[in-house]
Amino acid sequence: MESSISSTIDFTHSDNGKELLMRELAKVAEAVAKTLEPFCEVVLHDLSATPPKIVSIHGAISERKVNDSTTEMGYARINNPDFPDVVLNYPNTLPNGRPTKSTSIGIRDNNGQCIASLCLNVEIAELSSLHLMLGKLCQTDTEAAPVKESLVARKHSLDELDAAAHAFAKQYSRLPHDLDISTRKNLILDMAKIGYLGLHGSVPRLAKLLNVSRATIYAALKSSQT
């Protein structure tokens, strides 16, 4: 969406090169602020003006406006030619006391003089609360589960078939091959229901456990379908 920036810029100098630079920087300020809204304020300071002042501001979470005075960081840039060009992620505070994370970028002319600065102020109070909530949401207790579990779809094995058949027979204080015909049929149907009889080689394996023929297994399965 296009928007005009002319109403948020004030230039008192007639130097065309500087005015062009400020206009282009103001576009950057607006684009960055809109990309990171509603948490980010982007401010363009004219440090060569008298007095140094804000010439463009977008996403004004600090409630400042165009023509307001520049900050202590701006004056430090003016008074110290060796001041760092970029100061990243330093702590700051809004007028209401809420914390921000700020970055200040100095803009120099051809002579190396700092004539402007582009500053980003990100309100971090709500983001910090969100960080805490997400941390709590993602927290796990490694001691909570009595066994290690995986949510990967498990595949049955013939050894599990053996164990399941013995567990079934144990309910009757028997071994699988000692079960009566009716209980044996229930075991066969139970193994089929769980999915063990879909395994390759499961029918002969179960027939051996029960000491019956494969035909007996198939007959029990067929009778359950009628």
TrEMBL record:
Name all Transcriptional regulator DauR-like HTH domain ranges: 162-222
Q: Which domain of life is it from?
A: Bacteria
Which Pfam families is this protein grouped with?
HTH_22, PAS_6
The YheO-like domain is annotated at 23-131
Q: What is this protein called?
A: PAS domain-containing protein
Species of the source: Undibacterium jejuense
